[in-house]
Amino acid sequence: MSKSLHQGDSFAENTGWTARLRRWVAGQLWFQKFNNPLGLGLLLLATLPVSYLLATLELKIGVVLFLVLVGLPLAAFCLVNITFAIGMMLMVALMVVFGAKYTSAPIGTVLDLLILISAVGILLRQIKERDWSFLRFPLSYMVLIWLYYNVLQVLNPWAESKMAWLFTVRSVAIQQVVFFIGAYALRGNKPGIILLLKLIIGLCFASALYGLKQQFLGFSAAEMAWVMADPERFQLYYQWGMMRIPSFCYDPTTFGILMACFAVFCLALLAGGTRLVHKIMLGIMLLFAVWAMAYTGTRTAFALLPIGAMFYAGLVLNRKVLLITALMGLAGAAFVLKSTSSGVIYRIQSAFKPGQDDSMNLRLENQKKIQPYIQSHPIGGGLGSCGVWGKRFNPDSELSDFPHDSSFVRMGVELGWIGLILYTLLHYFVLRTGLYYFVRCRDPLIKAIYAGITTWCFMLAVACYVQEAILQQPMNVIYNVFLAILVTLKNFDPAFSKTDS
User: Fold this and answer.
1) DSSP assignments along 327-384, one per residue
2) Where are the domains of the chain?
3) How far are the Cα atoms of 2, 4, 16, 19 from residue 8, in angstroms, in the given order?
């Protein structure tokens, strides 16, 4: 009998042990969703056969499979989390331009795919929500008009190539859909706005650091091979006995403008309602941005820095800011007037002597030559009629070899004087929105962000007169995210309600 009792106790113990195991597995699976050490261990274990499979396949197949394994979960998450998708757009906009130097694969379509996924996610939500209030802003209407005009350009009778329109409309208009995506995702999401601002600041600072790495440690072998592969490209990079640094951007000009805008943006946040530790970090990043900008050799950026600082000082009308700006202006004037044998300093000085700048005089002459064409073509010669796409799709056209240089000139040539008026109005509505909410908001941090973004947009509007400042990546995505923040950040200020526009 004692033996049977002993067996019964053993059976009871086994039953209790299996029951506890089932309960533990159920808890790990159904309640904690494997968000625990067990889940991490199983995930790491699952990577072993996947790693072995990728290692045994051909390189191209392995890369495609890896992108599918990583890309599909990310795409699914972007569909349900629009703010995360915007963050992905910002990182992709920076890294795709960097990667495009080393591959002919159409990696730029990754950004288009993210925009499409986010737009589909919003439309699916609207089936239930039916709330289009995020579109009811004067700036939104202006962007919609701009988009509609650019899409209609496919019917332009003067356009010589539909393919040129297709390749150009992506950067000129379609990528402005990022503005509407951001306006939807950030309308009631202040943590999302702050997170995206931190991401933009982090990406810009990383760009500054990498640019300084290129200056002091040299270009990588792959980067140097890419620069040397094209004589015209090498001429653009090697000037005044120095290599101009592009960092992650496609060219030094875009990087220089990015650093100038980033420096003044840091200044605006530093002078605003931020904590002491953040002020110190912003001050360090400001110095690194100016330092990196100096080695880009971009005269537009050198001129933008004081222009942006003066605009910001006039915007905030703070005594300390005005005094510091005046002192910096005097120091800058002395710097420009001093003699030097340094190629870097000489190039900075030349930015403030436009009368002695042969390239600026040539641009002014080209603008005079093209004015009759713009006046006689109210809707222009069609998107992509000049520049890179003009040379590729319309090599025999008189516009294909025209050096437009400026965004405003390009809009006048490709979209006509009607398009030029609309493009100018778009800049006006952007600055009007930023100024309007800056004046009316009361929260110190929100006012500082509005001041920084408005100044950034003003600097880009000025830069567009001599460069294609906004159309290049990552500037295009950053600009449209900033526009979304302009129309949503005021929702979190005491002076506004969420329904105000």
Assistant:
1) HHHHHHHHHHHS----HHHHHHHHTT-GGG-HHHHHHHHHHHHHHHHHHH-TT-S-TT
2) 54-133, 134-492
3) 10, 6, 12, 16
- State both tokens at 324: 């510091």
> Are the C-beta atoms of 363 and 405 separated by less than 8 Å?
yes
The CA distance from 486 to 480, in Å, is 10
Q: Each residue's pLDDT tens digit in the chain (501 positions)?
A: 444 445 545 445 455 667 666 666 666 555 555 555 666 666 666 666 656 655 665 555 655 665 666 667 777 888 888 999 999 999 999 988 888 777 776 777 888 889 989 999 999 888 888 888 888 899 999 999 999 999 999 998 888 888 888 888 887 777 889 999 999 999 989 999 999 999 999 999 999 999 999 999 999 888 898 889 888 888 888 887 788 999 999 889 999 999 999 999 999 998 887 888 999 999 999 999 999 998 998 888 988 999 999 999 999 988 878 887 887 777 766 666 665 656 666 666 666 666 556 667 777 787 888 899 899 999 998 888 887 778 888 877 778 778 777 889 999 999 999 999 999 999 999 999 999 999 999 999 999 999 999 999 999 999 998 888 898 889 999 999 999 999 999 999 998 865 444
Please enumerate in sequence order all residues whose Cβ is within 8 A of that of 137, keeping only pairs 6 or more positions apart, or say none. Answer: 183, 433, 487, 501
- The whole-angstrom separation of Cα 114 and Cα 152 is 24
Which DSSP string do the residues of 307-343 spell out, in sequence order? Answer: HHHHHHHHHH--HHHHHHHHHHHHHHHHHHHS----H
Q: How far is Cα 349 from Cα 336, in angstroms, rounded to an integer?
A: 5
**Side chain identity at residue 119, one-letter code:** A
Spatial separation of the C-alpha atoms in residues 374 and 414, rounded to whole Å: 9
Q: Nearest to residue 415, comparing CAs of 239, 231, 155, 30?
A: 155
Measured CA to CA, the distance from residue 145 to residue 37 in angstroms comes to: 53
> Which three-class secondary structure state does DSSP give residue 238?
strand
pTM to 2 decimals?
0.85
Residue 49 burial (C-beta neighbours within 10 Å; 0-12, 13-18, 19+): exposed
Is residue 288 within 8 Å of 321, Cβ to Cβ? no
At position 315, the amino acid (one-letter code) is L
Token pair listed for 232 = 């015209």
CA dihedral (310, 312, 314, 318) positive or negative: negative
138 upstream amide cis, omega within 30 of 0: no
* Signed CA dihedral, 457, 460, 465, 471: sign only: negative
